[in-house]
From TrEMBL, chain A:
Family the entry assigns: Belongs to the ABC transporter superfamily.
NCBIfam families in the cross-refs: ECF_ATPase_1
Subcellular localization: Cell membrane
Residues annotated as transmembrane: none
Organism: Anaeromicropila populeti
PANTHER family assigned: ENERGY-COUPLING FACTOR TRANSPORTER ATP-BINDING PROTEIN ECFA1, HEAVY METAL TRANSPORTER
Domain of life: Bacteria
Keywords on record: ATP-binding, Cell membrane, Membrane, Nucleotide-binding, Translocase, Transport
Pfam families from the UniProt entry: ABC_tran
Full protein name: Energy-coupling factor transport system ATP-binding protein
Record-annotated ABC transporter domain positions: 4-247
GO cellular component: ATP-binding cassette (ABC) transporter complex
TrEMBL record, chain B:
Transmembrane segments: 39-62, 74-96, 108-131, 256-276
Protein's name in the database: Energy-coupling factor transport system permease protein
One GO location term (cellular component): plasma membrane
Localization of this protein: Membrane
Pfam families, alphabetized: CbiQ
Topology in the lipid bilayer: Multi-pass membrane protein
Gene source species: Anaeromicropila populeti
Primary site of residence: membrane
TrEMBL record, chain C:
Enzyme class: translocase
UniProt topology in membrane: Peripheral membrane protein
Chief localization: membrane
Record's protein name: Energy-coupling factor transporter ATP-binding protein EcfA2
PANTHER family documented for this protein: ENERGY-COUPLING FACTOR TRANSPORTER ATP-BINDING PROTEIN ECFA2, HEAVY METAL TRANSPORTER
Gene3D superfamilies: P-loop containing nucleotide triphosphate hydrolases
Any one Gene Ontology cellular component term annotated for this protein: ATP-binding cassette (ABC) transporter complex
Organism the protein comes from: Anaeromicropila populeti
Annotated ranges, domain ABC transporter: 3-244
Taxonomic path: Bacteria, Bacillati, Bacillota, Clostridia, Lachnospirales
Entry EC no(s): 7.-.-.-
Keywords: ATP-binding, Cell membrane, Membrane, Nucleotide-binding, Translocase, Transport
Family from the record: Belongs to the ABC transporter superfamily. Energy-coupling factor EcfA family.
Record keyword ATP-binding present: yes
């Protein structure tokens, strides 16, 4: 069963003059057809203005497609009667952690979503406990969000979504404003949720190193999907990525250069230091054998 | 700790209205009791006309401070920020008062014994008022406070007053005040780095010089409001209807004790003012 | 020409529960012409350091000398220092306030009390330098893209024609394209305009690629100070303080651990590639 499915999706921002006539139309999302399987970890990459955030907002029915259709767990986002159902199914985390925390105490913020859903008090407490535990923030439950680090705040925001028991979480550049440690924290929390809680994760980012653990990667440019595949398949196409001016992790680039320079023969993308070392050791052995002969 | 903070941030020293986490009887009281108590206490301050009244109110205040477990020095720090307002009030009372025992008369300025007396009492009243109300905010989280207000004002719903929405707005405002203060500090520094001067000049030029601070601050506030609205919508917020509470307000025995103490205080005030003097 | 810090300490919120010793006994000399990267995790004191350098905050004790003159001297012209040591804050585009880009960029030079045509000349030049064309001079900041806004904000500091430029994470929140543009701009300012640059960054890869000296801050003190290759040799110590070396440094070190006789001091992809090539020739394994 696909948790997300889009068909010929188009979204246009329309700027109107004061008299109501149309001044400019900007097509932010252009004929996008994607599917996300339940339980997958999907990364969507692209530059600012590539349409990735506009796509994300449509997954949560904050924006409704200009043309085409999105189904979230089989529900059409255009159907207004399903809107709360859809938002509960596909929870959304935004870029700036400060601007999405509503309450002044961590645990009360996590309870905000369930309160809105009309969940009985006892159940809210249970959900808050579980959600805080899942993101490793239980010990901060009585704290004020103001004194937490960016990574911690973002984990609170994730817990707040989690408490609504979504089957899918969409994150719109959740790490863009964080330092490296905060980024690591958030990414680890997401991987845990995906593996332990079986929650579908749709991560929108422009950091290449965050997508290497994903099940699949979608790359957008100028509103269109330009590349799609597993991280391995994507990172093999170093030249195409560089053309799109997306920076590749240093090891991937090094492996690519070595291969081009004839210093390494391999036919898969290198995503981590360990993989490169392994390949180089293998290559050293075989090439030494060849040389001896 | 979040972002690195440098500089001597004067704005941060304002403790008034900030929650002080501690475990005390006062902290565990229902916010409605505290709201009612504070409200009635403030009213009582304006009923007094006698010295014994001031003594009683002061005594009660001291006892409550003791019971709140908030350090006295912390409370006094909160007072500092309102000293200016207080001096202003006192100043007016001292220099522009009428009374029989005139001490100095020079043009519009007149100092009288009654004026000085009045000024002193005014100052004491103000101190009591500020201490009393800040004691409430010290011991009540903003959320409890808004919950308490929402519940206490619930009858107004019938008059089509959106009580829930007002309470929610208050709560959000309280959450964003420290964030915006920090931001103001940052923008001020950034503009100072470009040679902006916020400190010298007369009132008019100073006000004009605030533009480089206020414009970015407003833009930022709007951006945050926009983001927040979207985030709230994404978390299925749709007004007060059909909402449940994680921490519903329920009176405990302690709260009834609280109410009776407030009632007896009012009773004593009434007796003092009407029968003893 | 230099900036010299001697035994500089800075304590903020002194006497309250939030008291913090942000920098401790700092001794640094910044020579004219350097390109310095300042790294350290959040709260290590690097932001405090940047603000001390242009006099925005005053050291609790210690001395700062700008061209051998103490900036805390009563006769010292602090306003001139602000013009000489330009400071670009994090997310500088958030401080744009004027109705047009050119007016915003003019704010700094205008505060320096320059003549009108000089202000205009400087503002235009600064905008050209950051790659914002004449067609956008009169545009409102809201009409620009995120990357353009950031560059316009940097122009606002450049228009003061500083000799030193301090940038606090100038690439934060930008996409890869925007990051590269900013870093190339900074490199150009250093090489062509001969501006001394201090770049505060979280990205070890960026720092390794661009700067020629790294200062590592930890708990308000200097943990390491040297050329990138030397500093990143201490990658194990860097990890202990919540930092890391560039990925390729790990590659080279692990290769050595696995019996490859390679030089391990590479910090950029180019250097790593060369080092492996040298090794391959030596071993005769080249195909």
């Amino acid at each position: 069963m696909d948790i997300v499915k889009t068909k010929e999706l188009v979204y246009e921002y329309i700027r109107k003059r004061e008299d109501g006539s149309i001044e400019a139309v900007k097509r932010a999302v252009d004929d996008v057809n994607i599917t996300v399987k339940k339980g997958d970890f999907v990364a969507i990459l692209g530059h600012n203005g590539s349409g990735k955030s506009t796509l994300a907002k449509q997954l949560n029915a904050i924006l409704v497609p200009t043309e085409g259709t999105i189904w979230i767990d089989g529900k059409d986002t255009k159907d207004e009667s399903l809107i709360w159902d859809i938002r509960q199914t596909a929870g959304m985390v935004f870029q700036n952690p400060d601007n999405q925390i509503i309450a002044n105490v961590v645990e009360e913020d996590v309870g905000f979503g369930p309160e809105n859903l009309g969940i009985p008090t006892e159940e809210i407490w249970k959900r808050v406990d579980e959600s805080l535990k899942a993101v490793g923030m239980t010990e901060y439950r009585y704290h004020s969000p103001n004194r937490l680090s960016g990574g911690q705040k973002q984990r609170i925001a994730i817990a707040g979504i989690l408490a609504m028991k979504p089957s899918c979480i969409v994150l719109d550049e959740p790490t863009a404003m964080l330092d490296p440690n905060g980024r690591k924290e958030v990414l680890q929390a997401l991987l845990d949720l995906n593996r332990k809680e079986k929650i579908t994760i749709i991560l929108i980012t422009h950091y290449m190193e965050e997508v290497i653990h994903a099940d699949s990667v979608i790359i957008m440019d100028k509103g269109k999907v330009v590349m799609e595949g597993t991280p391995g398949q994507i990172f093999q196409q170093v030249e195409k990525l560089q053309e799109l001016r997306l920076s590749v992790p240093q090891v991937t680039e090094l492996a690519y250069r070595l291969e081009k320079g004839g210093l390494l023969i391999n036919n898969k993308a290198i995503l981590s230091v360990d993989e490169l070392i392994e390949e180089l050791i293998k290559w050293k052995k075989t090439s030494q054998c060849v040389n001896r002969k | 700790m979040g972002k690195e903070r440098g500089g001597d941030i004067i704005i941060r020293d304002i403790t008034i209205g900030q929650y002080y986490p501690a475990k005390s009887v006062l902290h565990s009281l229902d916010p409605r009791v505290k709201l009612a108590g504070t409200f009635l206490y403030i009213i009582s301050l304006f009923i007094f006309e006698s010295l014994s009244g001031y003594v009683l109110a002061g005594l009660i205040l001291l006892l409550t401070i003791k019971a709140s477990h908030v350090p006295f020095s912390y409370i006094v720090k909160g007072l500092k920020s309102v000293v200016f307002v207080m001096m202003f009030a006192v100043f007016f009372n001292v220099f522009f008062s009428h009374g029989q025992h005139q001490l100095v008369k020079y043009g519009v300025i007149s100092i009288t014994v009654e004026g000085i007396e009045l000024a002193c009492f005014m100052a004491i009243r103000l101190v009591y008022l500020i201490l009393g109300s800040s004691l409430m905010t010290f011991t009540t989280t903003p959320n409890q406070l808004t919950d308490g207000l929402e519940k206490a004002l619930a009858p107004l719903n019938r008059l089509k007053i959106p009580v829930h929405e007002i309470a929610m707005m208050m709560s959000i405002a309280l959450r964003f005040i420290p964030i915006l203060l920090e931001e103001a500090d940052k923008i001020m520094k950034a503009q100072s780095a470009r040679g902006a001067d916020f400190e010298t000049g007369n009132l008019m030029t100073r006000a004009k010089r605030l533009v480089p601070l206020l414009v970015p601050l407003f833009i930022s506030a709007f951006r945050r409001a926009n983001d927040l609205a979207m985030a709230m919508e994404a978390r299925c917020y749709r007004g007060g209807e059909g909402r449940t509470k994680m921490k519903p307000l329920k009176y405990k025995r302690l709260d009834y004790v609280g109410y009776s103490l407030v009632a007896s205080y009012l009773g004593i005030v009434f007796v003092i003012e009407n029968y003893i003097i | 020409m230099s900036i010299r810090l001697e035994h500089v300490n800075y304590v903020y919120s002194s006497g309250t529960a939030y008291e913090k010793h942000a920098v401790k006994d700092l001794n640094i000399t910044i020579e004219s012409g350097e390109f310095i990267g300042i790294i350290g995790h959040t709260g290590s004191g690097k932001s405090t350091l940047t603000q001390l350098l242009n006099g925005l905050i005053k050291a609790t004790d210690g001395h700062i000398y700008y061209n051998d003159k103490s900036i805390y001297d009563k006769k010292f012209d602090m306003r001139q220092l602000r013009g000489q040591v330009g400071l670009v804050f994090q997310y500088p585009e958030h401080q744009l306030f004027e109705t047009s880009i050119i007016r915003d960029v003019s704010f700094g030079p205008a505060n320096m009390g320059l003549a009108k045509d000089e202000i205009e000349k400087r503002a235009k030049m600064a905008l050209m330098q950051v790659g914002i064309g004449e067609d956008l001079f009169e545009a409102s900041p809201f009409e620009l893209s995120g990357g353009q806004r950031r560059r316009a904000a940097i122009a606002g500091v450049l228009a003061m024609e500083p000799s030193y430029l301090i940038l606090d994470e100038p690439t934060a929140g930008l996409d890869p394209k925007g990051r590269e543009e900013i870093l190339e701009l900074i490199r150009w300012l250093h090489e062509t305009r001969h501006i001394t640059v201090l770049l505060v960054s979280h990205s070890m890869e960026d720092v390794a690629e661009y700067v020629n000296r790294i200062i590592v801050m930890n708990h308000g003190q200097i943990a390491f100070d040297g050329v990138p290759k030397e500093v990143f040799k201490n990658y194990r110590e860097l990890e202990k303080i919540g930092l890391a070396a560039p990925q390729v440094t790990y590659v080279m070190n692990q290769l050595k651990d696995n019996g490859f006789q390679v030089e391990t001091d590479a910090v950029t992809v180019e250097e790593a590639y060369e080092a492996i090539k040298v090794w391959a020739r030596k071993e005769g394994v080249i195909l």
